[in-house]
Design brief:
This protein is mainly α. It contains four helices and no strands. The protein starts with a helix and ends with a helix.
């Protein structure tokens, strides 16, 4: 199974930390970033995906605005991570 198929399950409400009751939403938004990253990377390049996922987590995983990210912000975060 490729990372593209698993990316939707990468972040969970338990793995994203404290979000004042918005843990599910934070996980959903981060998973959308991961999906956008996966869509722009060769599906066989696991290293590129893993590096981009770590970059995204380090740069937006604790952004206080993550739960209100728009589609444009999600795409921008994915492009920056790639």
């Amino acid at each position: 199974m490729s990372y593209q198929m698993n990316s939707m399950q990468y972040a969970t409400s338990d793995s994203v930390g404290e979000w004042d009751g918005k843990e599910e939403l934070a996980a959903e938004k981060f998973n959308l970033i991961l999906e956008a990253i996966a869509n722009g990377i060769d599906e066989n390049d696991d290293d590129a995906f893993n590096n981009a996922a770590h970059y995204a987590w380090d740069n937006v995983g604790s952004d206080e605005e993550l739960t209100s990210y728009t589609q444009e912000q999600i795409e921008a975060a994915a492009v920056a991570a790639r």
